[in-house]
Amino acid sequence: MSSEREMTPLRKAAEAAEEASGLRAEIIYGVLMMSPTPRGKHAGIVNDLYDQLRPTLPEHLRPFQVASVPRPDDPDDYATPDLLVCDAGFHDSDEWLADPGDVELVVEVVSKGNSSKDTRDMVGWYAGASIPAYLLIDPRDGSWTLYTVPREGEYQARRRGMYGEDVEIPGLGVKIATSGLARYA
């Protein structure tokens, strides 16, 4: 993991842009991407998922909001998913990046205006970072997609469902209920 003094110039620029604008910065495939702070429904879905995951995860894992994960093969790229599940020790870390080898699940809630980033770009990015599971929640149509088994930059398995169908996360032994999640108007 990189510490503050090891940050690349692009990461420093992203941090400065985030600080100056109040927007969330990520570097995806070498491109600095800025996202607005999530709206109420978006943030509420993330909170609902956090509340479900926290008490059901194995003791050595915890969910985290607003935590970033680097792509291991690129010194600049990092993503900040809406929610990630990783080793509980990250809770006591001064690092701003979770070790991708410790991350078991990332969750993105599709933003009302930035759907291609979450539904296309991030699928390959998280697979390339070898994140075991990527859950995409889409409040536009009340659907979810779970990507698993990353290999050579692609997820080998994909399950799709609708709100009301529980999502079982392989390897974690948890089910996420989707029936109460909000939809965009």
A few lines on this structure:
This protein has 185 residues and is of the alpha+beta class. 22% of the residues lie in helices and 32% in strands. Strand 1 and strand 2 (31-35) form a beta hairpin.
List keywords for this structure.
185 residues; 22% helix; 6-stranded mixed sheet; alpha+beta; single chain; 12 strands; disordered N terminus
* Strand percentage: 25-35%
What proportion of the residues is helical, as a percent range?
10-25%
Number of beta strands: 12
Radius of gyration from the alpha-carbon trace, in angstroms: 16 Å
**Biggest sheet: strand arrangement:** 3-6-7-8-9-10
Description of the structure:
- There is one protein chain.
- The chain is globular.
- It has 185 residues and is α+β, with helices and mostly antiparallel strands.
- The termini are far apart.
- The protein contains three helices and twelve strands; from the N terminus they run αββαβββββαβββββ.
- The model is unreliable at 1-5 (pLDDT under 50).
- The chain has helices at residues 9-21, 40-53, 115-128, and strands at residues 24-28, 31-35, 61-64, 69-70, 78-79, 83-87, 103-109, 133-138, 143-151, 154-162, 167-169, 174-176.
